Every structure is written in structure tokens, then in C-alpha cells.
Amino acid sequence: MTFTADPKTKQLVEQFRSFDADTQLALLWFGYLDIKDKLTPANQTSAQDTAAAFYDTIRALPKEQQLQAQRDIVAGANSDISRSYTALSSSAKLDLWLRLGRAMEDGTVIQVPSDYKLPSNTQDFTNNIQGLDFEQRIDFTRSVVFEYGAKQ
Hints:
Elements: H1 7-17, H2 21-35, H3 45-59, H4 63-75, H5 80-86, H6 90-106, H7 123-130, H8 134-147
């Protein structure tokens, strides 16, 4: 499911999905940093509560398991955490990634290594993403994170 009807954004969602899990996680991180000042949590209390509970589950894991949990979600692995993620609403999924971004920023959740460099094949993608307006970027992110989780 894609939340956007914009053809350019749809194309970027497809391009994003072609990257490996670690690259997708890094792109989400750098995208978060780029627009974090404009982000607010979901306005649905139930989505916020669900996202907070799921976030607490990830945060409680040792750092390497936090990373593996995120990789499992992105890769659609058949793991407990990935299956649980699949059951979240789209708003809760978006809220979870916002919480993870904030936690990475403050060091509560494992961070992207400071010396990490995106693969060269992501340059055109990142340039195109930066050309989207804020709402298009949110639609892009919602479309991407909605698809994550265990595949049925």
C-alpha cells in the first residue's frame, strides 16, 4: 500500500525499497535529521500509546538486538518483533519511527555509526527526496514504513 498519489513520490518509494535493510535504516535516519524540527507525534492517542509500548520493547533490548529488531522489521523477517510490528496501525508505525529517531539522536537506541557513509548509489535518491515538500516526505515515509514487518 502506498499513501501517496504523487507519481514522483511513488517512484521514490519503489527506489527506496530496492536498497538493502541497513541502507534503508540509514536513509530513514538521515531523513529524520533533515526534517525533525517539523515533526510531531501522531494525533491519535491510541496510536501514540501503541507506538510508545512497542518502542519501549525495542529500547529495552541490548544495543545489537535493537539493531537486529529494526533490521527484522525492515526486511520483513518472520520474527516476533516483526510480526508484532505488522499489527500496528499506519499512524503507530510512523510514530514508532519518530520515537526511534529521537532515541537514536539522544543515544537511547543504537545509533548509525558516526563514520557511516551512504552507498554512492543513493545519491540521486537523496537529492530527489530533498526536493520533496514536507507533506510529500511524510507521505513517502508513511508509505515506506507501512510496508515493513513480517510478510504473511
